[in-house]
Every structure is written in structure tokens, then in C-alpha cells.
Amino acid sequence: MRLQCYEGVDEARALYEWNHAKQILRIQAGSGDWEATKADVFSEEFLLTRPLLTAIRRTEPTVLLVDETDKADIEMEGLLLEVLSDFAVTVPELGTITADRAPFVVLTSNATRELSEALKRRCLFLHIDFPSPEMERRILLSRSRSCPCIWPTSWCASSVCCAACS
What InterPro entries does its record include (predicted)? Predict the structure, then answer.
């Protein structure tokens, strides 16, 4: 499960929103009894779940990736803190939805801005730097079945990468 953060991502994109078009159709086709119609259009049938709510509702083991957290607004960080602290979401029309099994959550950041102290206190921080040129070479060679000699000359000259380069 993945929540891609970006500037302007909000609760509707992260948690849930209502299927307004479907609600309007139901209201127009309704019986005229507003109380019954209102209860109907704010039911599970009209709820569009987004990554945070979907991850909380899943019963099987789930990994939730909140990608590029630093691109989201401060308000979104607050929402993440609130939701991920209890693994529960309150949908006013439906009540509180609590996770039966908490997802394993991974937050990523490109360090374009500093994350809040409150969020950092609740996370295990691991800085992953860019690999060295030698490590990049080894990764590429381990993933390639054959060397088409597209590697930089320095790579082929520094080590035997294929029969053609030896």
C-alpha cells in the first residue's frame, strides 16, 4: 500500500472521501424521505477509501509506504501523527474504524525540508546515502546477464566485466 505525498495532498487523498456523483444519483432516485436517504448515502457503499484508511482496514499483514513525506504540508504531518499513533480513523458518519492488525509503516523523505520533531521522535531514522561508483558498478553488473559494453570505460578498464572487455 502506498501513499505518495506531494504539496497539497490532503485528508481526502490520504484517508477517504465520499463518492459525490453516486450520492447525487441516489438522492435523485430516492423515495423522498430525507432521513432514510441521508443514512443511505453516507454508508460504506459510497465511501472511497484511500491508502491510510485502506491500510488500517486490512486484516492481512500490510506494509504502508508513505513516500516523500517531506513534500507534504505540515497539516498532513499532523494527520499522519494522529492516524498512525492509534491506527484508527474516525469517519463522522460511520464511527471510528480501528485497525485489527497495525500495518508496518515506512516513511521516506528526500530531505527537501526538515520533518517535524514529533514525527521524527516516533520513527527509526535511517539515512541511506548514494552508493559509491564502485558499488553502482557492482549492482549494475549483478543485475545484467551480459555486458553490452555500455558501461563507462573506467568501469571496464578497472575490472573484467565480460569476455568482450577482458
Answer: P-loop_NTPase
